[in-house]
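I have been asked to look over a protein record a colleague put together. Thanks in advance; the entry in question is below.
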Amino acid sequence: MTDEVHETALIIHPVFTNVPTLERGDVAQAMEEACGLAEAINLEITKAMQVNISRISAGHLFGKGTRANIAKAVEELKPDIVMVNFTLSPVQQRNLEKEFNCKIIDRTGLILEIFGARAQTKEGRIQVELAQLEYQKSRLVKSWSHLERQRGKMSFVGGPGESQLELDRRIIAERIASLKKDLIKIRKTRDLGRKAREKVPFPVVALVGYTNAGKSTLFNRLTGANVFAKDLLFATLDPTMRRIELPSGRIVILSDTVGFISDLPTHLIEAFRATLDQTQYADVILHVRDSTQTDYDKHKQDVISIMRDLGIDYESDERIFELVNKIDICSDARRDEVIRKASFDNHLLPVSAQTGEGVEHLLNVIDDFLSKHWSQLHYNIPLSDGKALAWLYQHAEVLETKQGADVTEIIVHIDPANQNRFESLFHYAAN
């Protein structure tokens, strides 16, 4: 198996100097988030540049002097892509591509790339494609055949010099109308959640949080040390899903969802929520927070709001655990505050994905939570149905079996998720 080749990217973050400092926000955090977005689709960052803009150029966004500096960096670094952490007009994007002789992608295009990679349900994929088509409509670039060849879905990242085939507005409008009809049908038959759960025969633990909260670092720490990362069932399930073993020996699937993103363009909000659909059906939800962020409390409120839109009551849903990450580098005051609150709230956990502090405790908490909800159930399985018996032996704790003339009476200790999966797959009811 050959190593994956990553495209390289030069990140440009514009700072508008005529905007009050408070409205600009934290530039360092904005730069970090832009890099996090690029890394989320495996772009290798060659350099991240902050450029000051006193007046917007209608045709290029950047002034002549700034463009000269960017052109120099492009010439030196030769990136595959220049990512501008701002929403460019179609004219600005085309002009910059001509001037730099390099593929340009703006913030919206990059976010759409991430959504396209992470959408797992049919509804999520449709919402993302709708957003992509709306974005493309004004740009009329890239043929669907090229996109399918590159990633198997609609995509905006590509090398310079690729043919730019203009899409007919009427075809896009017809596709949008068709997708909207499909969306209505899907929402009328809301069995997506059950089908998604049946495909994964283990409890699912979902990570949610902002892009720079450290989700990926935690995901890698939790999955990197276990033997199930390679060469076993579900090891290649999805780039953002891995199976891990808890201290009790129980197997769970860890799912890294798309990161929450600040200042999300309005027309992308529905697509973003759709990519999080599977979170509704997770057995445990880990909300990863960045304890070093100045917008620490605002980010939490944003998460609560989006969870509510997904039908999840953040304050009362016992599946949700709040992980306050980067506890090793946050201020002493915040660390003391989090540790104090965690002492009487077992759903608040201080951790450091970087150093591993609190991770062992986290795994034990997940284990205890799942165990607490297990039930002891009694099934009568016909002797002819060896597949159902084998499933129970693999996914539940078998406490007792008794062979009858035609059936096996089996008593199992099983969690609710697997009980639902078993009864749905094999159509048996517990006695």
Summary: The chain is about 45% helix and 20% strand. The CA atoms of residues 307 and 314 lie 7 Å apart. Residues 169-188 form the longest helix (20 residues). The mean pLDDT is 82.
